[in-house]
C-alpha cells in the first residue's frame, strides 16, 4: 500500500514538475518573452498577477519578475526533473530490472520533448558547449578518480590496442563502406563524398564512456571485461579528436595531402601525450597543494575538483584530449591527496563526484531524448540501416581480429565469451551526437545526425537491454565481492617481491620489474614532496592495515550502538582518531553528563533488581525457580551495569576495577558494543589526558607518546597486552575530555 | 645461437626436462643461455654468489629467501635441470589444457605455484607458517619503518583471519583459501616463459 501511494505521489509530483517545465520551457524557447505573456500561463498561486506596466501608480506590493531568474530557474527545473526520474526508477523496481536506466531516461526525454513540441515551442537541444564543458567532465572525473589502477595497468596494452587500432579500423571500415553505399543510385546519396563519409565514420565509431558506464554498472560484470571496455572508451577519445579535426579540415579543403596525413599521425601523438602531460602537471600541483590544506580542511574537496576541471579545460584550450587529461590528473592526484586530506574531506569528494556524475549522466540521456524530438531530421532508410549494420559488423570484426593478435602477448587469454561481451559492449552515446552537432550546418549534417541518433538508440536500447540476459545466458563471470583481507594484501605484496626477484634472475624486464622500480622511485622521491608529515614514510601495508581497522571499528560502532546503548552514550565517536598533531583525546561526553547517565542507569537497574526481589519474595509458589531466574537476571544486570559504568566514567571505575578485570572481552562481534570497542586492536588511543593515573602500563605509554609516530603506533596495540590495562586506557580516552576542550574534527583520513 | 639441434645436445636431458616442465625447446634454450650468463666461471653449476651478483636481488626484501629456494636442502650448487625446474613454476598456466592427469603433475599448476610460495614463507618446512615465520616475512618487507607492536598486530590479525582450525599457524590449505580470490595464474606467471 505504502509504496503504491508513494509511487503515485511521485507520479503526481513528476507530472506537476513536467507541467511547470513545459510552461517554462515555452517561455525559454520563445524569444520575445514579455512578463505578461509568461505570467499568463503560470498557475502559481503564490504570485499575484501584478501589472508591471506604466499604468500602475501605486507601489506594487507584490510583483512578478520572471526574467530575472529565468536561466537558473529553468536549469534547476531540468535538474529536478532528472532527479525525480532517477528516484522514480528506483522506487518502481520492476521496470528497471528489465530496462536499463539509460533507456528509461531517453524515453522520458522523448516524452518531454514531445510535450514541448506539442505545445508549439521549440524544445532545447543538447548544446555541444553545454555537453562538453559542463555535463561530460563530472562523469569522466568520477570514472578516472576511482579507476582500479591495478587492473588498468595490467591490461594497458590490450586497452590501448582496442582504443587506438580498433577505433582506426572502425573509422576506415565504416567510412569506406558508407561511401560505397552512397554510390548506390537508389540511395540518392551521390552528393556525399568520401571525406564526408570518413568524417561520419570518425564520429560514429568511438565507444562512448557514458553509455558504457551506465549499462555496465548495472550488470556487475567481472573486473577484467569492465576495465577493458571502459578503458577503451576513455582512451579512444584522443583518436576521435584527432580524426574528427583532421577529416573536418580535409573536408573543407576537399583534398587529402600526404603531408596532411603525416601531420595527422603526429597530431595524434601530440594530442594524447600532451593531454596526459597536462593532466599530470595539474595532478602534481594538486597533490602538492593538498599537503598544506591541513590549515583549512573545509575547502579541501574543492581543490580536488577545481584542479581536475582546470586540467580538462586547459587541455581543451589546445585541442588536446581533455578526457585523457582529466583521467591522468585524477589518477596522479589520488594517492597523495588521499594521504593528506581528512577523512571527512575524502567522503565529501567521493560523494560529490558520485552526485555530479549521476546528475550529469541523467541529464545527458534526457537531453538526448529531447534533442531527438527537436532536431531537423533527414531520414534516409538505406543510409541509416546500413550505418547500423556496418557499425555492428566492424565492431565484431575488429574485436575478433585484434584479440587474435593480442592473445599472443597476453598471459591470460581472452576467450570467445570475453570477445563477445567486448564486441557487444561497444555502445555509442552522447559524445557522437555532440560531435555531429558541431558539424557545419548543411543538409548532410541532418542526414548524419539522424543516423547517429539511430545508432545511439539502437545500441542503448537493443544492446543495453539484451546485454544482461546474455551475460546470464553465457554465464560470464560476475564481479567478485571481495572482502578486504590483510592476508591477501600481505601475500600479494610478497608475491610481487617474489616475481620481481624471479624476473631479475631470468634477466627479463617484465611487468613486475618496472612496477617495482616505479614504487621505489615513488617512495624515495615523490612521496616526500607530496605527502605531508610522517605519512610520507608510511609503508603501504600499514596504511592498508590502518584503513581496515578503522573500517571495522566504524562498523562495530554502527552496528552495536544503535541497539544497545542509550543515545547519549552512542555519541561517543570512535572515529575521532587523533591526528598527527599533539595527541588529543577523543572527547566523548562531559563529566557531569556521565554522572547523570550513571545515576540514571544505576537507578533503573536498581529498580529492576528491587522488582525482582520483591517479586520472588511474594510469589511463594514459584520461589525456587524464580530465585534462579532472578539471580541470573540480577547477575546479568550487575554485569551490564559494571560494563556500562566502566565505559562511562573514570572515578567510578576505581572501585570497579577488580571485577572488571575478570571480564574477558572477546575480539569477535558480541552483543554489547563496548566489548568490541574496547578491543585493543583498534582506535584505542592512549593519547589521553595525563591526569588519570591508574594505568598499569604506564612505562610503555610515555615511550610511545614520545616517538613521532605515537598516534599511529598507539592505535595498533597488540592483543598480548593486558586486557585490563587496555580497558582502563579506553575508558580514560572515551570519558576524559582532556585538556583541550574543542573537538578535534580534523582526523586525518587513513586510506 | 647455433642450430637448435646442436644446442639441444648441449643441454643434458633436454627431452626429459621438456616433458617434465612443459617448456618448449626454444624456451629451454633461452633459459640455458641465461644460465650460462649467470654462471660466470663456467663451472656448469651455480652457487649463491652467482645469484647475488644479479642486480635487483640485493634490494629485494625476500631476495635471500628466493636464492635459497633454488638450492635444495644441503646442497650449495644448482645445476641446470634444477634451475629449470624451479623456474617452471612460473610458466603461465594453459587454460585450455585438458585437466586430466597431466595438469596436476606440471610444475605450473596453481597448486604447485602456491606450494612454492608457501615454502618461501615456511622456512623450517614443518608445513605451517607459524607466527614467528610470518613476523619474519613482515619484518623483511616492511623494514625498519614500523615498530614491533605494529608488526605484531598485523601478524596477529593475519593469523586470526586465515587460521580456521585455530592452531595458531597457517597451514597450506588455509594459505590456499586465503588467496582464493587472487588470480594466481596471472600473478605468478612470467610472460616470456610461455
Automatic annotation (TrEMBL), chain A:
Where it sits in the cell: the answer is:
Basolateral cell membrane
For this UniProt entry, what is the primary localization, expressed as one broad class?
membrane
* UniProt keyword annotations, A-Z: Antiport, Cell membrane, Glycoprotein, Ion transport, Membrane, Phosphoprotein, Signal, Sodium, Sodium transport, Transmembrane, Transmembrane helix, Transport
InterPro entries reported in the protein's UniProt record = Cation/H_exchanger_CPA1, Cation/H_exchanger_TM, NaH_exchanger, NHE-1-like, NHE_CaM-bd
Bilayer disposition of the protein: Multi-pass membrane protein
Tell me the first and last residues of the signal peptide. Answer: 1-29
Amino acid composition bias (Acidic residues), ranges on this chain: 741-751
Q: Which domain of life is it from?
A: Eukaryota
Bias-annotated ranges (Basic and acidic residues) = 693-703, 710-722
The entry's cellular-component GO terms read: basolateral plasma membrane
> What is the name attached to this protein's record?
Sodium/hydrogen exchanger
Organism lineage reads as:
Eukaryota, Metazoa, Chordata, Craniata, Vertebrata
Automatic annotation (TrEMBL), chain B:
- Where the record annotates domain EF-hand, the positions are 109-144, 150-185
Give the subcellular location: Cell membrane; Cytoplasm; Nucleus
Q: Which PROSITE patterns does the protein's record reference?
A: EF_HAND_1, EF_HAND_2
- Is GTP-binding given among the entry's keywords? no
Q: Which InterPro entries match?
A: Calcineurin_B_homologous (IPR051875), EF-hand-dom_pair (IPR011992), EF_Hand_1_Ca_BS (IPR018247), EF_hand_dom (IPR002048)
Specify the domain of life of the species encoding this protein: Eukaryota
Q: Is Translocase a UniProt keyword of this protein? A: no
For this chain, the family text in UniProt reads:
Belongs to the calcineurin regulatory subunit family. CHP subfamily.
The cross-references to PANTHER family, in alphabetical order and at most eight, read: EG:114D9.1 PROTEIN-RELATED
Q: What is this protein called?
A: Calcineurin-like EF-hand protein 2
Organism listed in the record: Oreochromis niloticus
